[in-house]
Specification:
Growth Hormone, Chain: A; mainly alpha; single chain
Length: 405
């Protein structure tokens, strides 16, 4: 039976899982494997940081996807490219002297993963009924987090108990199976009558108009600050040895459990943002992230402390992710919302990249304890600074919706 014009929101979950698998393997399984292959934490963090930086540039190739192939074709381009990169990456020997090559390969694999998400966003905008888009967004987040848990947890288990190449093949097969759900969604042809150059100029004009509004400019600056950046998430598995944690525990807490707890944090964060306001929830979530890191840093380095740190931080980052989206929606209004949201969400990955790199450097210069304290205190500093700015903007009456509805 051919798909109807609109699809069920839960189908979005299946489309997003493959991207989550790719990112989960890159940020959870890979750091552990590299650390046990002789890479330093700084090397590992640098490789992962460059890899996840692919999300910074997603908005640049968005117009290309919109104006050339159909959504379904671009989805399959992303799927096959992502699977091919994952398998190729896993059959490549992990040698410290080849860190540059591994970095390039990981970056390419994460670029491929972004091409999975680009058409999914358009599917949500055009193939989900208006009254169901909130649920579709929830399934989107669940698919991303669930995929990360699968790619990180199951990927690491396969790599350690079978082989690294089989981990890549296994995750690739699972990605393809989930991708079949795209046939349940009616395809959408691109706007070929429009020119990419015109769309890029239009994007630039919209961005310039937005940053002229004080609260929008403040929101852009805020999401670029290292508040609840989650850099340590990308090295948890690499530093598990400091807590004398067994592989099975690393797989469990960084895999499916991490995804479930993060999803719960996202749901709670959305409720809090509605009740407390976007800025209070954002800064509050940042403080909770810092509190978790400080508790772990000053607690005994035993398996229980590691489990609390990974899962507690996962929940706190769930709160942070929800607040992050709320801040963006508050700032952009409705005019050209897709373009502006894409731009700002890309910028929001900047502190993640920088803090991942920073954490690796601090760890190798000092130790895990100092690394956790450093990330926490940097966030606290910027929370206080942002709080002062918000107070002054409120006094001047600048805390109004950025763009009129």
């Amino acid at each position: 039976m051919p798909p109807t014009l609109y699809t069920r929101p839960y189908n979005i979950f299946f489309l997003v899982v493959p991207s989550g698998i790719s990112q989960g393997f890159a940020t959870i399984a890979l750091p552990y494997l590299l650390a046990h292959a002789g890479f330093s934490v700084a090397q590992t963090a640098s490789i992962v940081a460059v890899g996840v930086s692919a999300n910074l540039w997603r908005f640049l190739w968005g117009p290309i996807a919109d104006l050339t192939l159909s959504l379904r074709k671009w989805f399959w381009v992303g799927i096959f490219s992502s699977v091919a990169c994952l398998i190729f990456f896993c059959v490549t020997p992990f040698k410290p002297k080849e860190d540059i090559f591994l970095t390039i390969m990981l970056f390419i694999s994460q670029v491929a993963a972004t091409f999975i998400l680009l058409p999914v966003g358009s599917f949500m905008a055009n193939r989900i009924e208006e009254g169901h888009k909130g649920r579709a967004a929830g399934w989107y987040q669940a698919g991303n987090l669930g995929g990360m848990g699968l790619g990180g947890g199951a990927g690491l288990w396969l790599a350690e108990h079978v082989s690294i190449p089989m981990a890549g093949i296994g995750m690739g097969v699972i990605s393809l199976l989930f991708a079949l759900a795209v046939f349940r969604i009616k395809d959408l042809e691109s706007s070929k009558e429009k020119k990419i150059s015109d769309e890029l100029l239009n994007m630039g004009s919209n961005i310039v108009s937005m940053i002229k509004i004080p609260i929008a400019l403040f929101a852009i600056i805020l999401i670029c600050l290292p508040i609840g950046a989650g850099g340590v998430t990308n090295v948890w598995s690499a530093i598990a040895v400091d807590w004398k944690v067994e592989l099975g525990t690393v797989v469990q807490v960084n895999g499916i459990l991490n995804g479930i707890v993060s999803a719960l944090g996202c749901v709670a964060g959305g409720i809090i943002a509605d009740r407390w306001g976007v800025f209070k929830s954002y800064l509050g979530a940042g403080l909770i992230c810092s509190a978790v890191l400080l508790i772990v840093a000053f607690s005994p380095f035993v398996a229980g402390g590691y489990i609390f740190g990974v899962l507690g931080y996962a929940f706190a980052l769930g709160l942070m992710n929800a607040a992050f989206s709320a801040v963006l929606l508050y700032a952009i209004g409705k005019k050209s919302a897709a373009t502006k949201y894409s731009m700002l969400s890309s910028l929001g990955n900047l502190p993640v990249v920088l803090m991942t790199w920073f954490d690796g450097k601090v760890h190798d210069m000092y130790n895990s304890k100092i690394m956790l304290i450093a990330e926490a205190m940097i966030a606290v500093f910027f929370v206080v600074l942002a709080g002062i700015v918000i107070s002054r903007m409120r006094v001047k009456g600048l805390l109004l919706r950025a763009v009129p509805l």
